[in-house]
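Re: [help] complex structure
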Amino acid sequence: MDYPNLEQKRDLETLAYQQLKMAIVKGIYPPGYQITEEIVAAQLNVSRSPVRTAIKRLQTEGFLEKRSNRRVYVTLGDYKRTINTLYVRKALEGMAAYQAAVNRTDEDITVIKRLISEMGYYYKEDDSFKILQMGIEVHRVIYMASKNDLLTQIGINALEQEAVFSYRSLNNDSMRASRSYREHMAIMNAVLEQEAELAEQKARDHVDRLIERVQAAAPDNAEGNSGLLLSLPQ
Amino acid sequence: MDYPNLEQKRDLETLAYQQLKMAIVKGIYPPGYQITEEIVAAQLNVSRSPVRTAIKRLQTEGFLEKRSNRRVYVTLGDYKRTINTLYVRKALEGMAAYQAAVNRTDEDITVIKRLISEMGYYYKEDDSFKILQMGIEVHRVIYMASKNDLLTQIGINALEQEAVFSYRSLNNDSMRASRSYREHMAIMNAVLEQEAELAEQKARDHVDRLIERVQAAAPDNAEGNSGLLLSLPQ
DNA sequence: GTATGCTATTTTGTATACAATATAGAGCTC
DNA sequence: GAGCTCTATATTGTATACAAAATAGCATAC
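Output below.
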């Protein structure tokens, strides 16, 4: 057994959970891929027991899904699921932005200001990919600043799932990056200024834009899976 | 092994999950109670394996929590947790009401109208308990009408958890029932009329009232657990 | 009387054997 | 060749034995 970073000793269940989740999020096990206890166990060099626990957990979290009453696959995100997740994000991220504006600590302020200046740097450099990538971090920080554990846990899970199953196209053009930049800046500034209602509105608006993009990208063949592409949440 | 309703054959993991969850929600295992795999297994007359799976799942869902790095207890809902859950409910139930107003089918309309008339009956009868109890059903129906599986799943889970861990007092006076009646009616009517924004606002207002009540009931000793009482979500 | 360390007990973690069941595929019939 | 049935295989479900770890309680020393 190899402990990637050693540091903290974990039980095999936790290890299997983390490894498996990472493999899914990174796309090593792509959506639709069949997961079997035995194979994963062999790859991690542990018995089926801890792997089984990990698989069950990822099922309740939504990363894996049971199909045909016996087999487990990496969740296949279709159009409807993507839209559903985005509406959940709209509700949760709106609330998180509101709460963050109210509850942010000095430490949160420091972190957010650092994010703002870092993002500004990449904006000037016209580094579209970096800007889009940092969007995730913005949402994560705002969840943390909300000081609501439950909200944070559910919200980040939704965010991570979208990273895997997202239905959007992957054109990282600078127009998209530019809009992403402006929208995230607006949210963070409202949080800094403690403009709670504004922060909530900006966060909701941001997700509305994403919803529009998804709807525009797959208006017709809404039921099928064609057009599925991996992307970064924003 | 006894199958309560027989009908559908389930595997023991599912059975253990359902039984254990029911026992928690009904208060048979009260908050703070230690759960051990072996004892539950003995009570259900199955081996530890399926019980173990069920316990792990209830952990990730938040009904059970690990303390002292080895033992598992029924989650002890303190003030902060109650407030956190209510804010999550505010976000999700607001969104659900909005989506329900947009997506409700004819069948949903029938169900909602039946709920309205039934609730009206109990209101005339001045049956406070029944009215408060039906509040849960209202939220459940609205989640279903939203046609968003993910939203429904997360939202109902939050609702059920509050049923167990709620911090509020239990005085089922008719003034509370009267307000509960009015607020739930307002939400359902807005959904029927397809007034999406109004429905969202009414749903959020409703949870705000609950938050006020919790804050009023436990303003000072916010950290402790004194004052914890079981109640029904509304 | 308090604190510390040892030990027994409790409880979970892990591996593995076996059972049950669903799926796939071959072979058969028509 | 199409469809059916039967069988083999793949895979999960369940039980259980054993290992590891944490907790609690007791005894001992100071």
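Chain B touches chain A through 24 residues (CB under 8 Å).
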